[in-house]
Amino acid sequence: MTLKRYEALKWAAALLKSHHRDENIGEILLEYRLNLSRTDLLADIREPLPAADEAWLKEHVARHAVYGTPVQYMTGQAPFYGRTFRVTPDVLIPRPETEELVYRCGKWAARFFPGRKRLSVCDIGTGSGAIAVTLALEHPDWHVTGADISPRALAVAEQNAATLGAAVTFRQGDLIDPVKNESFDLLVSNPPYITGDEMDALDNTVRDYEPHLALFGGADGLDFYRRIVTGARTLFGTGPFFVLALEIGAAQGAAVGSLIRRAYPDRIEALSVEKDLAGLDRNVMAVLRTK
After folding, report:
1. Structural domain of residue 25, as residue ranges?
2. Which of 29, 208, 240, 245 could be disulfide-bonded to 188 (CB atoms 3.0-4.6 Å)?
3. Nearest CA-CA partner of 112 in 268, 283, 281, 276
């Protein structure tokens, strides 16, 4: 017997709940499968669900419920800053809190580079390109470069830039190595920052599927911050200031701030640990004098 949409969603919610998963996942998957907005899906909620769509929904809901397969990898897409980005298991799934880092880049750039439209920006560990592509689209006069050690991640980032019409230059290499001969006004990065203990405690939807290369930040989670902070001085541009914008783990604000103070004791113009919408430390923003 063919299920109606609401019946299929009721089945999905029950299965998801029994496995302690988000009960809304069925709705997200069905919207994707039918290419409908939530409003349109619910407006015709009593419509019968074709057999092929029902089978697809049941398969994918079960994969998430039982095995924890991320919805974003099953659909191949994730929302970020009002746009849809392609994602694969080669890249980290963009998180809503990272949108706050993008927003702060614009705010701090306006504050410390008043009247300047053309800024040179590098996104270190660009992954899907969500940060770099968004900055390029939100600030069309900026010259944005995205760097990543993974060629497969860069292929995804390049596709996102092309699809969304963003002018971004991509370079392959380890952290700042591929851009070390260039100069920038702003460095932004959401580097791997999960500690060893946190890796073991991660939900299996993250631990078993997202690339560990983009998650694990060493025993204390600070390995990549040490390298980025000390290497940033090689990227200073000709302007008076250099902005460092970093996403951090909720317990890392003080430690990352200390790394910056030790590396640049006489160059700090401003340094702030910023909280996300949940009230957790999420970004470290620093402005360094270049001379």
Report:
1. 5-67
2. 245
3. 268
